[in-house]
Amino acid sequence: MFGLTTALTIFLVACLLLACFFEFINGFHDTANAVATVIYTNSMKPTAAVIYSGLLNFAGVLLGGITVAMGIVNLLPMEALVDSNPYHGIAMVMALLISAIIWNFGTWYYGIPSSSSHTIIGAILGIGLAYYFLPDSVGGAAVNWGKAKNTGLALLISPLVGFSLAIIMMYIFKRFVKNEIIYKEPIPGKKPPLWIRMLLWATCGMVSFVHGSNDGQKGVGLIMLVLIAILPSHFSLDETINLQSVNANVSTIHKIVMSTDTSQFGKDEYSNFHNIKKYKEHYDAAIVNRTFSKDVPLAERFELRKDIVKITKGAEKLLKSPNFAVSLKDASILTAQIKSAKKLIEFAPSWVIIMISISLGLGTMVGWKRIVKTVGEKIGKQHMSYAQGASAEIVASIGIGMASTYGLPVSTTHMLSSGIAGSMVAKKGLKNLQKKTIKTIALAWILTLPVTVILSGGLFLLFRAIL
User: Most exposed residue of 24, 74, 113, 297, measured as fewest CB within 10 angstroms of its CB?
Assistant: First the structure.
C-alpha cells in the first residue's frame, strides 16, 4: 500500500507490535496501582476492578489529547526528527522500545512498582547521548536538555508531592469525616459500607482515567515515531491543517526574529537565526498554490515537516537566549505562533489512539497481581484503611491530571506509591513503613534512568552499525 520494500514492511510491523506491547506492559504494570486500593479494601472484586480500570484507561487515552505524546517526541534530538533515512529511524525506535520493554518487564516480574515514564525518558536520553558517538556527531545539540530538565523535574518531585499531599489529605479526612470505620483496616471478606465503596470506586476510576490520559499518550508518541521513521512521506504532516494558515504563523515568527538586534549573538544563535530565514523561504516556495498536504507530492512532504521543525525549534531556542532582544509582547506573540505552527506536525491519526487505547486497556486486565500485592501489602506494616486508599488515589489523580494539562509525563506509580506511603506515615509515623520495600522501590527509581540510558544508547549504536 505504501510502496515499502519487504524489509521495511517487516520492520514496520515489528516496531508497531513492540510499541503496542510496551503499552500492554504499561497497562498491567502501572494500572495495578489504581486497582490495589479497591481490591485490598474489599470495595470491588478483582475481576470487576481490573475491567473497570481497563475501560477507564481506554477512555483516558481516547479523550486525553496528544500534548504529552508530543512532549515525549520533542525530547528526541532534532537530528532524529528531521532524518529521512528510514533505517536510522528504525534503529532509534527499536532501541528505545526494546530497552523500555526489558526494564518494565523485569521490574514487573519481581513485583517492583517502577515508572514507565522514567523508562521511556531514560531510553530517549540514551539515544540523544549516543549521537555523540556517531561519525557526524553533533555534540550537545543531540539532547534537548531544556525539555529533559523540565521532564526530569516533574518526575523527580512527583513522589515528594504525592507523599506530602497524602499526609495533608489524611488530615482533611480526619478533620471532616468523623465516622471511625473509614480509618480502620478492612475485615477480610467483608464489604465496607456503600458510601465508602462508592468513594473508592470514584477515586480508582479517576486514577485509571488520568493514567490513560498521561501514560497512554506515551504510546501514541511512540507509534508516531515509528510511522514518521518508516513512512515519513505519509505521516509527516496533518492532512487537516491548512498549509497557508501555517504560513501565516511562520511569517510572523520570521518577522519578529528578523527584527531583533543580532550584534550580541553567538555561533548557535546565528545558526538558529539564519535557519529560520532559510527554512521559511523554502516553506514559502513549497506551498505555492497548495492548500493541504494532499496537494503536495509525497516526496516533498517530509521536507515541509523539516521546515517547520527547524523554524519552531530555532525560534524556541532563541526565546531562551539572553541575547535575543524582543519585547515581552513580541515574545508572547512568538510563543503563540510557534504553538500554532506546530499543529501541522504534531498530530496522531484516530486509529493510532484507538490502537494504544486497546493495548493499554487489555494490559490492565492481565498480570496485575504482582504489583497489587506490593502496593497493597508491602509498603505499610498494616493493610491500608479506606481513608488511606482514598487519600492516595485523590492525590495521584490530581497530580497526574495537572501534569497532563501541562504536557508533562509523570509517573502514576510514583505518585500513588508515595501517596500510600504518606498515608501510612500520617497514621503512625515513619515506623509504619516497611523499610525493605521502600528501599527496593527507591533503588528502582534511582536505577531506572542510568540503566535505560546505557541500554538504549548501546542498542541504538549497535542497530545503526548493522542497519
Answer: 297
